[in-house]
Design a protein that fits this description.
Radius of gyration: 17 Å
Shape: globular
Number of strands: 0
Largest sheet: none
Helix content: 55-70%
């Protein structure tokens, strides 16, 4: 039997599950690490859900938690021991709309993104979510102009990485 809080939480998370998926694709390279990171993001979302006041959009809050979790998780990943928090099975993130065999370009893009620094990854993540320069800046504590420049340079860097690896789009 689930409580109303859990039901609301799951509805919101499911509505925005693409955030969890994209964050894990950007910050983790192997499928196994992506799945672990998705679980970790879901755990952190659930743990901090009681602090969600609704003063921002749920999705905006979810982005922040996802990115912060990804960055922290990858730092911890190096010195990880066997202690593992179990997540209720129904917190699964559905990925039925993704087929790696079909989408080689996306694979190449995501592997290029692996080479970015955490701020650049965050900028690209927000950009992929369709955020404006102003929104990207607000989420990252940058001015709108600074966010525009950062995004432009990051896109350029991704193109250079892809070119260097011998692929052209």
């Amino acid at each position: 039997m689930s409580n109303p809080t859990e039901t609301t939480f799951l509805k919101l998370v499911n509505r925005h599950k693409g955030i969890v998926y994209k964050a894990s694709r950007i910050y983790a390279d192997s499928v196994e690490d992506q799945e672990d990171l998705q679980q970790e993001i879901l755990i952190q979302l659930w743990k901090s859900y009681q602090n969600f006041k609704g003063s921002s959009e749920f999705s905006t809050w979810m982005y922040r938690v996802a990115i912060n979790t990804a960055i922290t998780y990858l730092k911890k990943e190096k010195q990880r021991s066997g202690n593992h928090t179990e997540v209720p099975h129904h917190f699964e993130v559905q990925q039925e709309d993704y087929n790696p065999a079909k989408d080689r370009q996306l694979e190449i893009f995501y592997s290029a993104v692996q080479e970015l620094n955490p701020l650049e990854k965050a900028v690209i993540f927000y950009f992929m979510e369709g955020m404006s320069h102003k929104e990207i800046g607000k989420n990252l504590g940058l001015s709108e102009g600074n966010a525009r420049v950062k995004l432009s340079r990051t896109k350029e860097k991704i193109q250079q990485i892809i070119k260097k690896s011998g692929y052209e789009f």
